[in-house]
## 1
Amino acid sequence: AGGWPAVCGKFRAARTLSAVESLKDPETEPYRSKYSARALLQEVKQLLSAAEEGGEERVLAVRRAVLEYELGVNHTDTEELSAGEEHLQRCTQLLEPHRLSPDCVSLYIQAQNNLGILWSRRDEIETAQTYLESAEALYNQYMKEDGNPPLDPSEHFMAEEEKLTDQERSKRFEKAYTHTLYYLAQVYQHLDMIEKAAQYCHTTLKRQLEYCGYYPVEWARNAATLSQYYLSKECFMEARHCLAAASVIFSQAGNMPSAEDIDETEQDQHDLPERKAEIARCWIKYCLNLLQSARKLLEDNIGELDPDRQLELKAQRKKEEDEKEKGRKKAVLFGTTDICDSVLAMEEKVSSVYPLDFQEAREIFLVGQNYVQEAKEFFQVDGYVTDHIEIVQDHSALFKVLAFFEEDYERRCKMHKRRIDMLEPIYADLNPQYYLLICRQLQCELADTYYEMMDLKVAIGNRLEKLDSHTVKKINSLAQFAIKYYELFLDSLRNPDKVFPEKLEEDVLRPAMVAKFHIARLYGKLITSDSKKQLENMQTSLEYYTFLVEYCEKYPDAVPAIETELELSKEMVNLLPASMERLRAKLSPCV
Amino acid sequence: MTPSKEEDVCNHVKVVVRVRPETQKEKQGTHSKVVHVIDQNVLVFDPKEEEVNFFNGKKRAHRDINKRQRKDLKFMFDAIFDEDSSQLEVFEHTTKSLIDGFLNGYNCTVLAYGATGAGKTYTMLGAPDDPGVMYLTMMTLYDRMDQIKEDKTCYITVSYLEIYNEQIRDLLVNSGPLAVREDDQQGVVVQGLSLHQPKSAEEVLQMLDFGNKNRTQHPTDVNASSSRSHAVFQIYLRQQDKTASINQNIHLAKMSLIDLAGSERATATSAKGARFVEGTNINRSLLALGNVINALADPKHKKHVPYRNSKLTRLLKDSLGGNCRTIMIAAVSPSSLFFDDTYNTLKYANRAKDIRSSLKSNVVSLNLHISQYVKICNEQRKEILMLKEKLKEYEKKVGILESHHAAELSNNQQVEIERYKEILKNLFSNREEIRKEYLKAEKKLKENTLKKCYQNQCHEQIQLMCSEEKVEKATCKRDQRLAVLNIHCVHMQKKKEEELKHFEENTKWLHRVENEMRLLGQDGCIPKELHQDLQYCHLNLEVQDLKAQIKHMLSLVTLQDQYYKQTEK
C-alpha cells in the first residue's frame, strides 16, 4: 500500500475541485471542475482495484462504496442522472450488509439522500420519498442501537493521524441527517402534505439551532414565516413560540459570526432594520389573528359578544389548565437551555390563549400596537407605500376587533374613530392611478367604519328618551360619510370615460353590489323631519335596490354571490313604492 | 371588437406561447421535435412516439437510450403560435389589444420569457427586415396618437433599465446602481432613472438598440449568459384633452415591456428570480429552507410572509393587478436539443396563468365583515317586516290573517321550534321514566332468578349434609319460598311487558313528532336546532340508561356477595 498517501491525495483533490473550485467555473463551462474531479475519482478507482489483493475485503468494499458515492453525486451534479443513479445504487449495494455499522451508516444515509434528490429531479417525487424516509429510519435505528458518532465518509481516504474527532464526526453525521429532514420537508410540500412539511421544517429549524448550523437573520426570518403557517392552523402556542424564538435569535444577529458558509452576510447586515420590521409584522399578524379567532368563538349570530359563550369558555379554560398544551409544547421547543430561557421569557410578554374579555383582549392589542409602531419605523409611507398601508390596515383591524370586546358603546365608537383617523389621511394622499387596489380597499373599509359608527350612534340614541338634534345630526353626517366612500368605491369601477360598466368583473362584483345595497340602506336611515326630503331619500334608496334586482335579472350568474342581499332588495323594491305612495298621499291630501 | 374588449378587462394575465422554427443545426443533427402544436390553444410537449416518428423516423434509436418515458403533456394557453406564424400575427394577437387600454389610461405589461436562443429577442425586437413586437407596438402607438392629435396632446417618455444581480442600472445613460422606492403619488419610482422623449417609433428603436449594447451581457450573444439579466423598457404616456375646459382630463399610463432573464440556468445558479420557477426539484441548500416555509405560509389570507422581494417584483408592484393588463409571451424551441429548457419554460408559463387568480383574490375582501353582515340583514328583515305590516294596514285590513302568516313566517318558525322543543322535552322525560321502570323490572327479574338459584343451591347443600327430616322441612320451606318468588317473577314479567308497550307507544309518538318537525324545516329535514336538541335528548337518555344499569349491576353484585359470604359460613 505504498501508493496509499497518493490515493488519498487524489481523492482529496477531487473533493476540493467539486466543492470549491467548481464555484468559480465560468458560465460557459459550468461543469469544468466537476469533470476534472470525475477524472480524478476514476483514477482513484483504478488504483484501488489494482491494490485489490492487499487489504481486507470489508475495508475495500467500503472504500469502493465511497468512490461510487462520489461518482454518483458528481454525475447527478452534471445532469447525467442515469449514470449517477447507477453509481449510487452500487454504493448502497456495497454497503447494504454493513449499513448499521459506524463506518458505513453516514455514507449510506448520504447516498440515500442523493438518490432522493435524483428521483425528485425526474419528477418522481414518491420514489424520492421512499429513499429519504428510509434514510430517516436508518438514522433512528442507528441512534437507538449504537449512537456513537460514526465515521465521516471522507475518513476512509485519510491517514490514521488525520482522522476526525468524535465531536466533528457527530457534527457531520447530524448535518447529513438534518439534510435528510430538510429534503423530506420539501418532498412533503411537493406532495401537498402540508402539515408534515411544516413539521419537518420545524424540526430542521430546531436542529439548525442545536448544531449551530444557522445564520441568525435567516433563521429568524424562517421561524417568523413558519409562525404564519401556524396561524393559518390556529395553533397559537406554536406560532408564538416560533415568533419568540425568531425575536431572540434575531437579537443575536451581528453579535455572532455565522457558522454556515455564507457570503451574503454584508447584504444582510445592511437589511437588519428591514428584517426586524418584518418580524414585527409577523407579530402584528399573530396578535390580530389571535384576537380575531377569539372573536369568532365569542360572537353570537349578529356579531356581538355572547355572554353565555364567554362564561362557558372561561369555565372550560379553567378546567383544561393547559394540560394539553404542555405536551404539545415539548414537541416544538426550540434550542438549547440558554436560548430556550430567553425564548420563554419572550413568550411571557403575550398570551397564546384566546382572550375572553376586554382586559385580556386589550393586553394582546397593546402588544400588537407596539409592533405596529416598530414596523412603521422602517416601512414609512415615503418609499414603502404598499407595506406601510398594509401595516396601517392591520392597526385598524386591531382596533376593530378590540371594539368587539368593549361593552361601552361610546368608547367603542371612539375606537372606530381612531380607525377613521388613521385611514383617511393615507387615503387622501394616495394616487389611485398606481394604487387602485389599495384605494378600493381603503374606500370600502372607511365606508364600513362610518357605517358601524352610525349604527352605534343609533343604538346609543335608541336608549335615550328622545333623539336630540345633536345625535340626529351626528347620525346623518356619519351616514353621509359612509355613502360618500361607498360612492367613491363605485366610481373607481368606472372606465376612463366615467361610464359605469355594464357587466362587473368577477372580482369586484360582490363588493360593488354590497356597496350599492349599503347605500340603499343608508338612504333609508337618514333622519329628516322634512317629508319631501324623506320622499327623495326613499326614491334614491329605491333606485339602488332596483339596480341590484335588475342587474341580477340581466346577469343571473351574479345571483349566487349576493343571494341574501338580492332577496332583501327584491322585497324592498316591492314595498318601498307603496310606502312612498302613502307618504305622498299624506303630503297632499287634497289632490 | 367590443365583446372581446369586455373580456380583456376580465383577463388580467394572458399567456401566449411562441414556438420558433428549427434551426439548420437542429434539422441536421440527431434531434427530434418535442413540441407539437395542435391548435391555437393547445400544444403537446414530448408527444408519444408515433406522432413524431412520422416526421423523423430513423432517429428514434438515439432518444431511446434515455429509456425515459415520454411525458406527452398537454398545455393550454390563451394563444399558441407555431413555427410558421409571422411577427405581425403575434403582434395582432398580443400587444395590439393592449394599446387601446393603454390609450385609455390603463397600465400594461408585456413579459417575454424563455431560454436564450428560444426566439425571445426575435419576438420582442425582431430583425431589421422583420421587426418584432416592440417595434410594431411603437409604430401602432404613434399612428394612433397621430389620429387623435386633433383632440388630445400626447407626451411620450421612455426609460430603459436592466436588473442584473439584483441591481438596477440605467441602460440609456451611464449610471451606478439605482434604488426603487414607492411614492404615494407617483407609484413605483426608480430614483435617478433617465427619461427620454422620442419623437418617432424609429427613435425608440434606436434607443432600444443603444440600450441593448449597454446590457451587462449582450442578449444576442450565444453564450447563454444573458440569463440573469432582466431588461425593462417602460413607456409613459400622458394625454391631455385639447378642448379648453376647467377640469382637464389627463390620462396617465405606463407600459412595461420586459425581457425576462432566461430560464435555462435558473435552477443551477440559484437565481433570485427563481421563485416562480421552482419545480418539484429538491433544493439542496439549507439556505433555501425559506422557500419551503414560504410555500407553506399562504400570504393570501391575513398572513404576512416576509420573503425578500426581488427587485423585479418591486418594480412591477404597480403594474400587476388593479386596472393593469398583462401579457406574457413564452418563447420555446421545438427541438429536443432544448428539451429541459422548453419543459421549464412551458411549466413556468403554465404557472403564470395562476397569477390571474391570485391577483383577483386580493381585491376587496368583504368576508371579514360577515358577522356584521348578519346583523344588517336581520335589521333589514325587521324593517321589511315593519314595512310589510304597515303596508297591510294601509291596504285596509284585507286578509289580515294571511299577512300575519306571511310576515311572521320566520317568527312563527321560531315559535314552532320552541314549541317542539317543549314537546321533545316532555316526550323524553316520559321516555326516561318508562326506561327507568323497565330497567327496574329487569333488575328485579334478575334478582329473582338469582334468589331462586340460591335457594336451589342451598337446598342441595342441605340434602347432602343433613338428616332426612331436616331435608323435608327445608324442602317445604324452599318450595314455599320458590312459590313466592315465582309469583313475584310473573308479576315483574307483566310489568316489564307493560313498560315495553309504553315504550313502544312513546317511540311511535316520537316518530310522529319527528315527522312533524321535518315538515317544519325546508326540504324535508328537521331544522338544525331541533335536530341537535333531538340528538341531545337521545344521548341523555342513553346516559341515564347506562347509569341505571350500572347501579343495578352493583346491587346485584352486592346481593351475590352476600350469598357467597353466607355460603362460606
## 2
Amino acid sequence: MAAEAAGSGGGSPASARRRLRIISGHLRGSPRAAGQEALSPSPCKAQGGSAGPAAGSIPKKRQEILKWNGWGYNDSKFIFNKKGQAEFTGKRYRLGGMVLPTFKEWIEKTFGASLEHKTTSRASLNVNDVPPPIVNEEFLQDLRATKISYSQDAEDRVFRAHGHCLHEIFVLREGMFKRIPDVVVWPVCHEDVVKIVELACKHNLCIIPFGGGTSVSSALECPEEEKRTIVSLDTSQMNRILWIDEKNLTACVEAGIIGQDLEKQLSESGFCTGHEPDSMEFSSLGGWVATRASGMKKNIYGNIEDLVIHIKMVTPRGIVEKNCQVPRMSTGPDIHHFIMGSEGTLGVVTEVTIKIRPLPEYQKYGSVVFPNFERGVACLREVAKQRCAPASIRLVDNAQFQFGHALKPQVASIFTSFLDGLKKFYITKFKGFDPNILCVATLLFEGDREKVLQHEKQVYDIATKFGGLAAGEDNGQRGYMLTFVIAYLRDLGLDYYVIGESFETSVPWDRVLDLCRNVKERIVRECKEKGVQFAPFSTCRVTQTYDAGACVYFYFAFNYRGISDPIHVYEEIERAAREEILANGGSLSHHHGVGKLRKRWMKESISDVGLGMLRSVKEYVDPNNIFGNKNLL
Amino acid sequence: MSLSATATRFFSTSKDELTSKKRDEFEDILEERRLSSDLRYAMKCYTPVIYKGLSPCKPNAIKSVVLQSEQVQYVIKQLAKEMGESPDIIQEEAMEILDEMGHSMQLGTVRFFAFTLSKIFKQLFQRVCVNEEGMQRLQRAIQEHPVVLLPSHRSYVDFLMLSYLLYTYDLALPVIAAGIDFLGMKIVGELLRRAGAFFMRRSFGGNRLYWAVFAEYVKTMLRNGYAPIEFFLEGTRSRTAKTLTPKFGLLSIVMEPFFKREVFDTYLVPISISYERILEESLYAYELLGVPKPKESTSGLLKARRILSDNFGTIHIYVGQPVSLRTLASGRINLCPYNLVPRHLPQKPTEDIQEFVSDVAYKMELLQIENMVLSPWVLVAAVLLQNLPAIDFELLIEKTVWLKGLTQTFGGFIEWPDNLCAKKAVMSGLTLHSNIARLVDGHVVLNDKGIEDGAVGEIVFKRALVILMCSTYRNQLLNVFVRPSLVALALQMTRSFRKEEVYSSFSFLRDIFSDEFIFFPGISLKDFEEGCFLLTKCDAIQTTQQEIYPTDKGSVVVSFLSAMFRPFVEGYQLIFRYLSKETKEAFTEKQFVPGVRNFVFQLLEKGATQCYEALSSDMQKNALAALVQLGAVKKKKIVVVVLLLLKSITIGVPAMSPCLALAVCTEHCWPLKTLRHFLACLLRKLIV
C-alpha cells in the first residue's frame, strides 16, 4: 500500500497522466517512428512492395513477448519465491516485484491447495504434435504474388488457434488442438485484406480473422471438420491511426490496433477514446467491434456501439460501409449492428472511425464499504437512477473483497500498517460491519477537477444513505489494478491444480441480487455433485450500471485434485451456471460474445425468427461460408 | 400406447425401488412424555433450527411487508382504477383480509399446546411413532432452503400432531393453512392462530384482492424462510382414508418463488400420518351417508371430549425424503415467460407450468401413499369385507397372514412387529375396533348390534354405517393394490388373454376411477406394466410378448384382488344406472347426491344389491367427476348452480340400449351416435 500511496498525489493532473502510464506503461522502447508518419492518410503501408514491419506492441512473432501457454507478457507472472511468498515478477505493472505476504494463505484456505502439489505445463510447444497443414499450393502462389507476409510455421499457426478459454490454455499446456490454421497472413492495410478475401473466394478457403487473441468464447477455435485450407488473418500489423479529426472529435483507425497502442498514440495528440475493456492491453479495435465490447468507463464514453461512427468491412460479397460519418442516421436498420457482434462470421473489419475525447484533466479513485451486498446493490441502483454514475463503479462481493485483500503488497512502514489496523478497527468494531459480510464498491471519477470533486460528493452522499462508508482511494485503485493482473492468476492456479474462469451477464435491476445469489449457489452445488472435494471459489461483482439493469461478472475457480477429467467437469459446471443465469432472467452475454461456447442457447435467446434473420444476412454476405469459424449461428 | 417421455422420467419410481425399499425405524415420542413432566417439557428451552437465510421478523411485520409489497400494491391500484375508488379504501380492505388471515404465532401459546396436547395425546393414543431419520433429514432441509410440509389429511389431529412433533424435535414450528371455518370456533380459532395457523377462505377464485393478498402472504413467509409452510394437498380431510385427488392452488403459490428464482430452491416434504384408529371414524361414516358434518364449534369440541376415554391405538408419522423442487423442475420448465414480465405482476401460469404443478402434486401424494403405515387391522378389514356376514376366526387369521405377504410384495408398508404372532395381532385389532367387528362363537362378525329390530330402512342405514367404517380401513390398502388389481379386473373383463385388449380394459378402468384412486397423470402404460410386474412377482399371472394369462395358483390372488375392488365397480354401475334411468336431461350437483343415495337405498332395501358402499357420497362425487372428465356429462355453470346435462338415458338390465345426448345448450356437442356408443361401452365394460 505504501508504494501505491507514494505515487498518489490525490487529484493532481499528474495522477491522470500516471494512470495512462499504467495502462500504456507496458510499452517498451521509444515511441516508434512510424507513429508520426501514420498520422497522415496514406493509402497503404505496403505500397511499393516492401511490407515494412509494423511497430505495434505485438510483433508478428507473438511468442517473443507473450506467453505461449498462458496470459499476458512472458516477463510478468505470479510466482512463489524462495521464502514461499507470492510475488509478481516483471516491471510492467505496479504490482511488479512486490511480495504479497497473505496471498499464499488465502490460496490455501480458499482452495485447499497446497504448494507441494504442483502440475507443470510442458516447457515448450512440441512441433511434432502439430497437425500437418492442409496446403493449397495455387493459393500460396497467388498469395506470394501479392507480397503479403505469411507463414506456415507450426508455432505461428498454433498460437492463432485459440483464445483464452480455460480448455484452450489446458490444451496448450498438456495436449494439442485437433485443427489449427494452415496459413497465417499479416495484411498491413485494407487493400491487403481485400486481396486476401478475393483469393480465399477464388480458391474456396476458410478465413478466420485474428485480432488480439483474447477471446473467451472459443471463437478462435478452428472447426474440426473444416477440410478447406484455414487462413488465419492476423490484423495485428494493421495498426495505424489514419487520421484524427479534431473538429468532429473522431479518429479513423486501422482495426488491428490494440487498445493500449490506440490510447497511447491518441494521448500524444491529447486525446483518448476512453474505451477500456479489461483486456485492452492485448485486444484489438476490430475485435471490439466484432464482439460488441464494453469498456470499464462506458458511463462516460459509452460502449463500442456508442463509440463507433463508421466501419469498413471486407466481405466475400464486397466492401460494406456507409457513405458519411455522421452521429446518427435513419436509413433502415443500422448496418453497423449486423457487423458489431458478428464475431468474424461475415468478414474482416479493416478500418473504424471512432469517437475521441480530450484527455481528462483529472482522475480520482475511490471506494465505499457497505455492510452487505444487498445495500451495495441498492446504492448502485440509486446511483444509476440518478444517472450520476462515475466513469466506473463496481461492487465486489465479500469473497472478492477478501480476495483483493489477499493481494495487498507488503506494507513498507509501521505507520501504514498502523493506519490499516485503525481503519479496520473503525469499520468492523466501531461501525459494526461484519468482515465476512461487508462488500466494497470501487469508483473511478474522471473529468474537470471541480466537476469530479462535486460528482464525488454526490456519489458519496448517496452511498451514505445506504450505509456506505468511504474507504479511501487506495482500495479503489487496487481494485482496478486487479482487473489487469487477475488474468495472470489463472496461470498460477493452473500450476497448483486450481482451474477457473470468469463469465458475465446483464440483468434487470430487480433480479440482480437473486441472480448473484442463485448462480453462486448453483456453482457450489454443482461442484459438490460433480465430486469437487473442496468448496469452490464462487464470487461476483456488479461491474456496470445502466438505467434498466446491470452487468454482473462472476469468477469461479476450484481445486481439481482427485478429479480425472477436470476440464469436462469445469465445462459442465460453467454450463449449469449459464443455465442458471438464463433462468434468472440474465442475458447469454453482456460483452464476451457467443462464439462457439454459448451457441446452444442462441435460439432460446433471440427466438427462431431472430436466428433466421441473422442466418439470412450470413447467407447473403457469405454464401460459401468463407468466414467459416462457425461462431454465433 | 405411446407414453410421454417426460412424464416417465419424472415419475421415477423404478420397479426395484417398489419392493426393495428400505424404510426408517420408528421411535415412540410419547414414551418420553410418559416418563417426565409435561410442564417441564412445555417450558423447555426452545431454540429451533431455522433457515440459514432467515431474516427474522415478527408476525405483524410480515403483514405490513405483504401490504406494502409491490404485488399487493399493484392489485390495489388496479382495482382502485377499475372501481373508481380511492386506493386507501382498498388498502383498508386488504388490511382487513390480512388481519383475518394472518397467524400470530406466540411461544406462550405454543407452550400451552405443548402441555395440553401432551395430556390429550397420552390419553388418546398408545404410541405416536416417528421416523427419526426423517426428522433429521427435515432438520437439515429446514436450514438449507424454504420448506413446505405436505402431510396427508385424515383427521384434525394431523396438524396439531405435526406441530407438536416439530416442537418436540426443536424444529421451527410451521405456519399452517387452515380453513376459515375454524375461525367460527370461539377461543379455539384464536388459539390456533397463535399456534401458527393462518386462515384461508374456502373459495376466492373471483376475488382478486383476496387472491393477491393471500398469495403474497404465503410467498413472503416462504421467501423469508420465516417458517416451514404446511398445508394439505388433499384440501380437506379424507373421509374414506383413501387419498383424495390433489388441489393445486396453494401448491402453485408456494412453487412460484422458485419459478421466479426468488429462492434458490424449495423443499417439498411429503409426510404420511397413519392412524390405527381414526378419531373421526364414525363422524365420517355419517357424513358419507348424508348426515351433515357438524359445524366446527367450540361447544362441539367440548362435547367431543368423551372420546378421551376411548383408545385410538398408535399413530405413525413418516416424514419423507425432502424433494427438491429444483430437481423436479430441472429440464422441464421454460422460464422465459417469467423473464418477460416484471415479477410483481400477477401472471397466469402457462399450460406447461400448470401441468408441472399437477404432476408434482400427484407425485407428492404418491410419496405419501408409499410411506403410509398399514396396521394388521387394515388387512383384517379387507378380508372381513369380502366375507360378510361372518368369517371363521382361524380362517380370518390365515387369510390375514396371506394378505400380509401379498401386501408386502406390492410394496405396502406394514407395521407388524416381528415377534407378534398373527393371532395376537388380529385380536388386538379386533379389540381396538370393537365398534366395527367382534368375535362371536369363533366367528368374526360386523358389530351391528341392534340391527335385528327396527324398520328395514333403519337396518340398512346402520349396516351401511358399519360397512363404511370398516371400508375406511380396507381403503388404506387400495392405493397400494390398485395397479395389480385393475390388471386383475381387466383380465376378468376382457375374457381374452391378448395383452393389448387387457391393456385397453385396464386403461378404461383407470380412466373411470381416475378420481377414486391416485394415478400419476398420463402414464397409463407404465401403471399397467407395474401392475403386471407385481402380479407376475406373486406368480398370479404369466406374461409373454403377446399375452397375459392367470396361472393355476394365481386365481386366488386374481379373484381376491378383483373382489377387493368390486364394491367400486358395482357402485359405479349403480351410479351410471341411476344417471341413465332416473335423471332428467339436466340436474344440479345438489340434486345428484341425494338422488343416487335414494336410488341405491331402495335397491338395498329390496335386496336387489349388496353394494352398501354405493351410498357413500364420496364415491358418488368421484363417479360424477370421472364422467365429466370423460365427457359423458357436461358441466355448465348457470349463475351459481352447476347443472349437469344429460339426455334421455334408458337402460334395460342386463341388455342396455342407452341413448344419451347432451342438452341443446352445450357448445361442444358430441354427435348423438358417438355419445350413445360411448355410454353403451361404458356400461358394458363395467359389467364384469
